[in-house]
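Fill in residues.
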């Protein structure tokens, strides 16, 4: 019977923080506890002072909390119902490890600026959550499109498309971009994925982020997931590098826990064992922090320029 109170650590000039965190809480009769910016070291203490019952974050924040030293108090653990994750795909290993350590269920969701945020969500417990999926359509319809913009067969990968009252009308004063984004009434998200027999969507990558090596499409997320399976990895992202032999080759960037003795050789060997040599990175770069946008989402396409 505790009144819902959300913990806002995301910037409210971004659609996730504004629509889901701020507006979602207030229009549903809840309240907010807010902080100027996210701090892994202060997060749990701030959650206790704010008496929050849930929080909405991004995968990089979940990873930083997981690899931090701070833990929630018994009072915080008893009050928290769930955490919400959005803005980019949450690695299966990261979600499982976070839930095991902190005992807080993570509800993975998916949204777009063009849809006033949320389009997919896993249900709250005791509903079925499928780790690795941002859930089922809520308030709109979802379909998978082939390259010919027709319906893909069940379980086949294609482009995720959305139709519903939350979808934008157009890009202002940009009819060319609007025409490219819509297939009839359906908004093309630019995300690749498939729908399972229960209606849950599984996102496999972004069309513009695909690595095309020797004519073969490689989804960076598949490589990210393998890297995140190593417990010392805090952030990871695979990306394409132009290559004279294959057109593009696979590289990756990671940040690791302070004091970790992880090596490039060990991580490449892990990828070879899980993915085979062809899909594995040729090089893995160690950075203090990967580049991120306003929401905290890793900006994969910037990596080749900065490294």
């Amino acid at each position: 019977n505790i009144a819902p109170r959300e913990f806002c650590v995301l910037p409210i000039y971004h659609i996730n923080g504004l629509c889901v965190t701020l507006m979602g809480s207030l229009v549903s009769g809840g309240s907010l506890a807010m902080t100027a910016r996210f701090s892994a070291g202060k997060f749990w203490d701030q959650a206790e002072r704010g008496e929050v019952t849930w929080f909405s974050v991004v995968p990089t924040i979940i990873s930083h909390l997981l690899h931090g030293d701070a833990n929630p108090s018994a009072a915080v653990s008893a009050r928290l119902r769930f955490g919400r994750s959005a803005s980019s795909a949450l690695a299966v290993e990261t979600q499982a490890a976070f839930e095991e350590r902190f005992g807080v269920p993570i509800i993975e969701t998916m949204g777009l600026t063009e849809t006033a945020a949320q389009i997919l969500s896993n249900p709250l417990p005791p509903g079925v959550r499928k780790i690795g999926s941002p859930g089922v359509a809520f308030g709109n319809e979802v379909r998978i499109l082939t390259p010919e913009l027709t319906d893909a067969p069940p379980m086949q990968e294609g482009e995720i498309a959305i139709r519903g009252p939350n979808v934008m009308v157009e890009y202002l004063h940009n009819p060319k971009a609007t025409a490219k984004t819509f297939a009839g009434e359906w908004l093309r998200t630019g995300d690749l994925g498939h729908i399972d027999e229960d209606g849950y969507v599984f996102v496999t990558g972004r069309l513009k982020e695909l690595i095309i090596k020797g004519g073969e499409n490689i989804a960076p997320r598949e490589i990210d997931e393998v890297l995140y399976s190593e417990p010392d990895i805090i952030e990871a992202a695979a990306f394409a590098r132009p290559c004279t032999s294959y057109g593009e080759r696979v590289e990756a960037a990671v940040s690791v826990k302070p004091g970790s003795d992880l090596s490039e050789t060990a991580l490449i060997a892990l990828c070879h064992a899980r993915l085979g040599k062809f899909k594995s990175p040729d090089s893995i770069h160690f950075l203090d922090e990967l580049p991120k946008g306003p929401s905290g989402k890793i900006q994969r396409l910037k990596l080749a320029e900065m490294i």
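The first strand starts at residue 5 and ends at 8.
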